[in-house]
Amino acid sequence: MQINIEQVVLEVIEGDITRWQGDYIVNAANSGLYGGGGVDGAIHRAGGRRIAEECAVIRQKQGHVLPGDAALTTAGSLPFRGIIHTVGPIWKGGSANETAILAKCYSTSLTLACQQGARSIAFPNIGTGVYNFPKLAAAQTAVTSVIQFIRESGPAMPLKLIAFVCFEQDNAEIYRELLQR
Ligand code: APR
To answer: Closest by alpha carbon to 3, among 166, 146, 158, 112?
Structure first.
């Protein structure tokens, strides 16, 4: 399912983000960039140990990545131009700035992608697995942040395709419904 916002295609796909085709994929990482389960585990497994080695270099150079921030590595053996590792908020009931942090994950990742001249990027449903962010609220935040970024960036923005890759069917349905509105 696709919609257009000011010359940019927003797409909802159901599946494994490591199988997507495009320039950059976003990882839902932890602050230490140590790798983990969920989408993080899938990306590290599929891309090989070079990704973990690059994450270790980032950790040594700049310390932990704060929630809402992002760091860039190559994609190892995956066929992407790179991987943007962003750190979502751990859901603590909603009063710990979780929504603003999640929104920042999307805007920071998009900024980083644009700095690299990316034409396409795919996001997983950041925060909605191990970190327990409620799915509907997370999707609303994701869609709102992405659309706001597109509107603020204007036509000079290199990104032409932004995909939401949903591993779970219920998330895909939530995104389709939100984008259809
Ligand atoms: N492709 C796309 N999405 C996936 C994949 C995959 N291969 N595998 C899992 N997902 C989905 C999950 O179904 C969920 O909707 O990614 C979403 C985010 O879930 P998590 O990966 O658990 O990420 P998050 O909730 O942000 O928690 C991050 O989990 O794996 C650890 O190291 C990671 O500590 C960090 C934490």
So the answer is: 146
* Cβ of 142 less than 6 Å from ligand 1: no
> CA-CA distance, 31 to 40, in Å (whole number)?
12
Ligand 1 centre to CA of 120 (Å) is 20
Does the Cβ of 38 fall within 6 Å of ligand 1? yes
Q: Please report how the helices 135-153 and 169-180 are oriented relative to each other, as an axis angle in degrees rounded to 10.
A: 50
> Which residue segments constitute the domains of the chain, with CATH numbers given?
2-180 (3.40.220.10)
Residue 54 main-chain phi, psi, to 5 deg: -70, -35
Say if residue 157's pLDDT is above 90.
Answer: yes
d(CA 44, CA 134) in angstroms, rounded, equals 25
Ligand 1 centre distance from Cα of residue 155 (Å)? 32
Kindly indicate the confidence band of residue 95, based on its pLDDT and cuts at 50, 70 and 90.
Answer: very high
Q: Give the confidence band of 124 by pLDDT, cuts at 50, 70, 90.
A: very high
Residue 8: beta bridge partners?
5
